[in-house]
Amino acid sequence: MADFFSWVDKPLDGMAFLNMVIGAVIVLAFILGVVTYTIYFERKVIGWMQWRIGPNRVGPLGLLQSIADVLKLLIKEDIVPAKADRNIFLIAPILAFFPSFMVLAVIPFSATHIFTAASNVGVLYYIALSAMTIIGVVLGGWASNNKYSLIGGMRSAAQMISYEVPLAMSMLGVILLAGSLNLVKIVEAQQAFPYVWYVVPQILGFIIFIISATAELNRTPFDLPEAESELVAGYFTEYSGFRFAFYMLAEYVYVFAMSALGTTMYFGGWSGPFLPGWLWFAIKVSCFIFFFFWVRATMPRIRTDQLLTFAWKVLIPLSVVNLVATAVLKYLLK
User: Fold this and answer.
1) Which of 29, 42, 162, 291 has its CA 20 to 30 A from that of 214?
2) What sections of the protein cross the membrane (predicted)?
3) Sequence-separated (6 or more) residues with CB below 8 Å from residue 137
4) What contacts 325, CB < 8 A, 6 or more positions away?
5) Domain map of the chain by residue range?
C-alpha cells in the first residue's frame, strides 16, 4: 500500500505537469494514427480473405481511404433526434471513448515504458476503467429513443458484464505466477525464463482470455450489440458525424489496448532477441489484431442465449479450474 501511494509525497511542479500533458498528446496522436490504419488494414485483410480488393481508390493502394472517411465524419452534420434525451445523447459517446484512451496509461510499450506509468495496480486499473465504457454504450442506446439502439445497449451491457468475469479470472493465473499487478513486473517475470512466456503454463487461461476479449470488444462472432442484420447499427444507430466517430474510435482503440494487454501478460511484452523491444511489442500486438480480423472474416454470429450461456456455464468454470491449477503449480515450484 505504501508503494501505491508513494507518488503523493512527490510535488507536482509545472515541468512535471507539462511533461504529462505532452506525453498524453503524443500517445493520443500515435493511437489515432494506429487506429486509422488498423481500420484500413482490416478492410484490406477481410477483402483478401473474401476474394475482394478492399479500398484501392483514395491514394496509392487506398492508403488515404481511412483518412478520407475520418474527414467525412468530422464535417458531417451532427444530428440529434427530436425525441432523444439531448444532454445524455450528446455526452454518451465521450463517456464511451475516454476510458478506452485512459487504459493505455499503464501499457508498457517498451522496457523504458516512456509516456506510461509503471503502476503497481496496472491490471486492476485496466479492468476498472474498461468496465466504465459500458456506461457510455447503455446511455447512448437509451437516450436515442430508438428501439434498435435500446436493444443494442441492453445486449452490450449483458455481454460485457458476463464476459468481464472470465476475462478478469483468466488474468488471475498470470498475476499469481508473477506475484504482481504491475504490468512491467509481469513482463520482467517472464524474462526470467527466456522464450517460455506465460502462454505456455497458462495456455488454458490464454484461451479463456482471447475468447472473453473478443466478446468484450463486440467483435464477430460476438457482435450482437451491433448486429447489422437485426439492429441496423445497434446502440449507435441514431448517431452521425463526429459522435459516431467517437464510438468507432473507442472500439478500435480497445482492439489495440486489448491486444497490448494480451501481449504483455502472455507473450512477454517487449521481450525478444536481436530486435529492439518496442519492435517486438509492435509485432506481437499486430499478430493479435490480425487474429481479431481473421475471426471476423471467417466466423458467423452466434445467438444471444448461446453467448451468455457459454460465458456462465463454460468459461467461468474453466477459469476457476485454471486458477486452482495455477495455485497448485505455484505451490509445487516454491
Assistant:
1) 29
2) 20-40, 88-111, 123-144, 165-183, 195-215, 252-271, 277-295, 307-333
3) 92, 96, 153, 156, 157, 160, 225, 235
4) 204
5) 13-75, 79-332
